[in-house]
Specification:
The protein is mostly helical and 253 residues long. It has 2 domains: 74 residues; 177 residues, MetI-like fold (Orthogonal Bundle). It contains 10 helices and no strands.
Length: 253
């Protein structure tokens, strides 16, 4: 009796095992049948952007790199020209960043600590230059302060017999580049540092003043250290935009 029961149990277990194998094989077959169209759709989905990147990004980039680092272009004269351009770019970007911070931080204090009529409108207008294309900003500065700009024309109209040359009212190209970069990127400092200053508790500075610190000492010892991360972030962004600026330097330089 016991042996027959055991044989019956083994037969049931074997049948269950066979059923599981059949289900597993069926699932694998169904997955392979279903996954083939799915993989083909995925391949078609990625094929277009990969082809676009290969034609319009990797191919031009490889041509540029092969031309730049070829033996024909890596001459001492070309290396000297490239290093001069790199030094000028680094210098103007660093100086433009410093001037942008010098103008932007007082503007941040003005918008964050003082209330006056038209404050929101004026703060919104500071973002207009950043929304304009760099070529438009450079062309505007050139039409205003260039050799045949509006300022020189207005001076000649008022004083037609003046002995001052027209170039007296024309900015040096390097100064015009710096002013255009400050005009273009000052809103970055106003937005980033202004948001950080607005989130600071004004009681910290008030407490420092109540302990005997004047306004300058409270600003340099309390507020400024708390704003250093935001100032650093704004400086990096401004430097990046100034370093990669091409339209401004092309039109004003």
């Amino acid at each position: 009796m016991d042996s027959s029961v055991d044989e019956r149990g083994d037969e049931i277990n074997m049948n269950q095992t066979n059923d599981r194998r059949e289900v597993a094989v069926r699932n694998v077959f169904n997955f392979s049948v279903v996954s083939a169209p799915m993989w083909s759709r995925c391949l078609c989905l990625w094929l277009l952007p990969l082809t676009f990147l290969a034609i319009f990004f990797f191919l031009p980039l490889s041509k540029i790199l092969s031309f730049t680092f070829s033996l024909e272009t890596l001459t001492p004269e070309n290396i000297r020209i490239a290093m001069d351009a790199l030094r000028f770019t680094l210098f103007q970007a660093a100086l433009s960043t410093i001037l942008t911070l010098a103008l932007g931080i007082p503007s941040v204090i003005l918008f964050a600590r003082y209330d006056f009529r038209g404050k929101s409108v004026l703060r919104a207008l500071t973002a207009v230059p950043f929304l304009l294309p760099t070529v438009v900003v450079a062309a505007s500065f050139n039409s205003l302060l260039g050799p045949n700009g509006l300022l020189s024309t207005f001076h000649f109209f008022l004083f037609p017999h003046s002995t001052l040359p027209t170039s007296s009212f024309t900015l040096h190209p390097f100064v015009a580049i710096l002013l255009a970069h400050v005009f273009y990127n000052s809103t970055i400092v106003i937005r980033i540092v202004g948001a950080a200053l607005s989130n600071l508790d004004p009681k910290l500075e008030q407490t420092a003043r109540s302990l005997g610190a004047d306004s300058l000492r409270a600003w340099t010892k309390v507020t400024l250290p708390l704003l250093r991360p935001s100032i650093l972030a704004a400086s990096l962004l401004v430097f990046l935009f100034d370093f990669t600026s091409f339209g401004v330097i092309l039109l004003l330089g």
